[in-house]
Amino acid sequence: MPIWAETRMMNSFIKSKYLTVTVILLSLSFLARAVVSSSSVSSSSGDILSGFMQKVASSYVTFSYTYSVDSQVKINGSGTAEVQGDSFYMKSSGMEIWCNGKTKWTVDRASSEAVIESVESSSNDYYSNPARLIGSLDAAFVRIGVSSGVFRGKNVKIFSLEPKSVGNINMLKLYFSGNSLSGASVTVKDGTETEFIISNVRFLGKTVPSHFDFDVKSLDKSYIVTDLR
Q: What is the C-alpha to C-alpha distance for residues 33 and 134, in angstroms, rounded to an integer?
C-alpha cells in the first residue's frame, strides 16, 4: 500500500477517536469560559457552574471516563484525561494524544503508528481540532436550556448547548449531580450520540507546560511516524 494511502487510513482512524477528546474538552472548556447569565439560569444552577468554572480555569485537571457510542456498531471504551489551559493529554483504548497548544502528537501503540500535527489557531473545525475549544468555545456555542433529569440513576441538572454555526457537532449536554460533573453526551450531525460517564475529577496545582510535550525519539524503530506539519 502506498504511503499516502496508509496516511489517509491512519488519519481517518484517528479522526474517529477525536470524538472522545472533543466531548471532554467541550465539557471542561465550556465550564472554564462560559459566562453564566443570571437572567436565564436560576441562582442554584449558576452556583454549580460558577464553582466548577473557577476550579477548571485555575487548575491542572485530571479525570477518568467511560464512553459508549450509539451507532450502527456499538462502541464502548474508557480512558483518562489531563487538561490545563489549551493543553491536554488523553489515553483511551490504546491511543494516546498529547497537545501543548501548538503541536499535537497522536500515538497508536497497537499499530505502532504516530502522527504529528500543528494546531491551527484559525481553524474552526472543532471536531478534528478540539484543542482550540479551550480558548474559543464561548464564541462557538450557546447554552439553550437548563433542566432537571436522571443520568445513570442519579438526579441531575442538564445543561444543553448547541453550536452557533453549522458544523460536525449538533448538541452537547452536561450532567451535574450536585456540584460535580457526572457525565456528558454529544450528538454529531449524522445522529450518532456518544455518552460519557466522568469520574475521579481532581483539581491540582498547575504543572509545567512541558508536561504536555511528547518526545518522538522515545518511540522505537518499529513505529511509522507521519509528520503533517
A: 8
pLDDT for the residue numbered 33 = 42
Domains of the chain: 3-227 (2.50.20.10)
Q: What is the DSSP letter of 167?
A: S
Per-residue pLDDT band for 127 (boundaries 50, 70, 90) equals low
Buried b (16+ CB within 10 A) or exposed e, 145-159: ebeeeebeeeebbbb
Q: Which are the contacts of 188, defined by CB distance < 8 A and separation ≥ 6?
A: 19, 127, 168, 169, 170
C-alpha to C-alpha distance for 17 and 21, rounded to whole angstroms: 7
Of the pLDDT bands very low, low, confident and very high (cuts 50, 70, 90), residue 165 is confident
pLDDT at 84: 84
- Asked whether the predicted pLDDT for residue 6 surpasses 50, the reply is no
Contacts 24+ apart (CB under 8 A), 202-208: 202/61, 202/62, 202/63, 203/55, 203/56, 203/59, 203/60, 203/61, 204/59, 204/60, 204/61, 204/62, 205/59, 205/60, 206/58, 206/59, 206/60, 206/84, 207/60, 207/84
